[in-house]
Amino acid sequence: MAPDNWRRSSYSGSGDGNNCVEVARLPTHITVRDSKAPTRATLAFRPVAFAAFVGALQAAHPRATSSTSKPSSFSRYAA
Prior knowledge:
Blueprint: E1 7-8, E2 21-25, E3 30-34, E4 43-45, H1 47-60
Antiparallel strand pairs: 1-2, 2-3, 3-4
């Protein structure tokens, strides 16, 4: 089952925004793909593993998740 609800990170940047990853939520897992090559392979994570991944990124980059910056658009996928 291929997801049709791909979302790009809110941190993609200006222009065409192709320097990022995209995620899609399916009933049993979260899929991730490279926005530069959307027809190539995707990675699939169980929601709990994706939550751990997002948490690790937020811990490694606290400035990106400070109270003065906008929250990651992918945080809601980890819930």
